[in-house]
Amino acid sequence: MQLLLHAHGARLAPVGGHVAAVHRVSGVLGEREVNSFHRFAALDVPPRLETLARCGPVVEAVRLMWHPERTQPYDPRDVALFAGAFGR
Questions:
Q1: How many angstroms separate the CA atoms of 57 and 43, rounded?
Q2: Nearest partner of 36 among 57, 16, 52, judged by Cα
Q3: Element at 86 (helix H, strand E)
Q4: What pLDDT, in 10s, does the model give residues 54-78?
Q5: Which residue among 27, 55, 60, 83 has the highest number of C-beta atoms inside a 10 angstrom radius?
Q6: Sign, CA torsion 70/72/74/76
C-alpha cells in the first residue's frame, strides 16, 4: 500500500511501533486490532484517494487497497472481509 501511495504522490515517513506489532485502527471500516509489519507509512493521502483507516497519524487503509499483514493461521476476520468483498 505504501508503494502505491508513494506512486500517487504521497510522502512516506519512518514510523515506530509498526513492526511485528498489534495495534488498533479506526475509520470508515470501523475499529479493530490489526497486526502490522512496516517501518514507513503515509501520513496523508493524495486528494483523489480516500483514507479508510488510521492508527493515530498513520494511514492504514485507503480505498485503493488494504492489506492484512502476516498471520498463521489466517485471521478468520480477514478471510471473511475478503470473501465478502469478492462475493464468496
A1: 6
A2: 16
A3: none
A4: 999 999 999 876 666 777 888 888 7
A5: 60
A6: negative
Q: Domain span at residue 69?
A: 2-85
Name residue 30's amino acid. G
DSSP string, 21-85: EEEEEEETTEEEEEEEE-SEEESS--TTS-EEEEETTEEEEETTB------SSPPHHHHHHHHHH
In the numeric block, the cell 488510521 is attached to 54
Q: Give the angle subtended at the CA of 13 by the CAs of 3 and 36, to the nearest 5°.
A: 70
The whole model's pTM is what? 0.70
How many domains is the chain built from? 1
CATH code for the domain of 6: 3.40.50.880
